[in-house]
């Protein structure tokens, strides 16, 4: 398992670009990178308001720079990748309902935008590119998952492109990130604080979950380990949606507040009852350690300290489910700002 000293030595004095760097995960990656003393961090996003606020937060850091642009525009991406050693590609359309309503917008950002990043990074001889993907890319039933699957395939294929002699590409599959924009916990908490019912889609639904800090650390470790073509997956616990709703009721009761009711509304278009992390055809290429699965580009490769495992846990309804007390503890930490 890689320690913080090795990570610091790896990222120190590097020129790093974070696309979508003003989002929840992008900001956490930037915050984690600062401790490793990179030469330069460029935060690339199309949201001028978030850039303005983030500039105020990091105004004392002379190695942090901001560039306003959109990954859909190749010229902008090509310009901002000049002189860059390492790219974390976080920018994407991530909200399932939005992508269902605007499928070609999802294609333009998640597919064409990703191809722009790939072409620009190869042209400018970037050393490594880490693509942020999702468990929804496995056996997708919605537009967002389908576009992220194509994005994964683009990044994997980029390692063997004829004009690529320098750049290594890999992907990271996330579960649901706690307290990120659009995730279920802030949705439920806002409903509860407003006196509204908690809208449970289906009481059997389960989801993989990870903290924002875990997501950032996984991403940094993936950059360290990658030799090109891997998919990295954090070993996550799972959450039952009904248990989450009941835990929020318990959380409000313990604070002496009126507990919200629960309303079942049915599965939204494109949603699944459970999520998956790994395709069956990937099993023979999987290695693992205590915290990560890694899907290698082919089997038989010696990969650091990782050991082969042909029978991983890969569905959110088959791994350890979080108990109500654990969820209430998470809610308390989120409210205190310590998670």
TrEMBL record:
Which domain of life does this protein belong to?
Bacteria
**Pfam families the record matches:** Polysacc_synt_2
InterPro entries reported for this sequence:
NAD(P)-bd_dom_sf, Polysac_CapD-like, Polysaccharide_Synthase-Rel
Residue ranges of domain Polysaccharide biosynthesis protein CapD-like in the record: 16-295
What SUPFAM superfamilies has UniProt attached to this entry?
Answer: NAD(P)-binding Rossmann-fold domains
| Family per record | Belongs to the polysaccharide synthase family.
User: Mind telling me which PANTHER family this protein's record contains?
Assistant: UDP-N-ACETYLGLUCOSAMINE 4,6-DEHYDRATASE, UDP-N-ACETYLGLUCOSAMINE 4,6-DEHYDRATASE (INVERTING)
Q: What is this protein called?
A: Polysaccharide biosynthesis protein
**Taxonomic path:** Bacteria, Bacillati, Bacillota, Bacilli, Bacillales
């Amino acid at each position: 398992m890689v320690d913080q000293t090795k990570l610091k030595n790896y990222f120190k004095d590097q020129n790093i670009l974070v696309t979508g760097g003003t989002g929840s995960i992008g900001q956490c990656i930037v915050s984690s990178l600062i401790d490793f003393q990179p030469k330069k961090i460029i935060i690339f996003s199309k949201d001028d308001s978030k850039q303005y606020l983030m500039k105020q937060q990091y105004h004392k850091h002379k190695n942090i720079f901001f560039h306003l642009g959109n990954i859909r525009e190749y010229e902008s991406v090509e310009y901002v990748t000049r002189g860059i050693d390492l790219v974390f590609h976080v920018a994407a359309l991530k909200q399932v309902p939005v992508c269902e309503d605007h499928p070609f917008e999802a294609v333009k950002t998640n597919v064409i935008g990703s191809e722009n990043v790939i072409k620009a990074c190869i042209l400018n001889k970037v050393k490594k590119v880490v693509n942020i993907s999702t468990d929804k890319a496995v056996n997708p039933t919605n537009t967002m998952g389908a576009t992220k699957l194509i994005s994964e395939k683009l990044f994997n294929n980029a390692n063997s492109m004829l004009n690529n002699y320098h750049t290594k590409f890999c992907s990271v599959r996330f579960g649901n990130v706690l307290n990120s924009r659009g995730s279920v916990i802030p949705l439920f908490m806002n409903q509860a604080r407003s006196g509204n019912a908690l809208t449970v889609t289906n009481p059997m639904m389960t989801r993989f979950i990870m903290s924002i800090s875990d997501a950032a650390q996984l991403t940094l470790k993936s950059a360290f380990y990658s030799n090109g073509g891997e998919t990295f997956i954090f070993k996550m616990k799972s959450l039952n949606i009904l248990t989450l709703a009941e835990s929020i009721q318990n959380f409000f009761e313990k604070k002496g507040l009126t507990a919200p009711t629960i309303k079942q509304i049915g599965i939204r278009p494109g949603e699944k009852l459970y999520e998956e992390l790994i395709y069956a055809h990937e099993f023979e290429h999987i290695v693992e350690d205590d915290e990560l699965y890694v899907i290698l580009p082919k089997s038989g490769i010696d990969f650091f300290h990782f050991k082969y495992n042909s029978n991983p846990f890969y569905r959110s309804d088959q791994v350890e489910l979080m108990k109500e007390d654990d969820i209430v503890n998470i809610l308390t930490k989120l409210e205190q700002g310590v998670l």
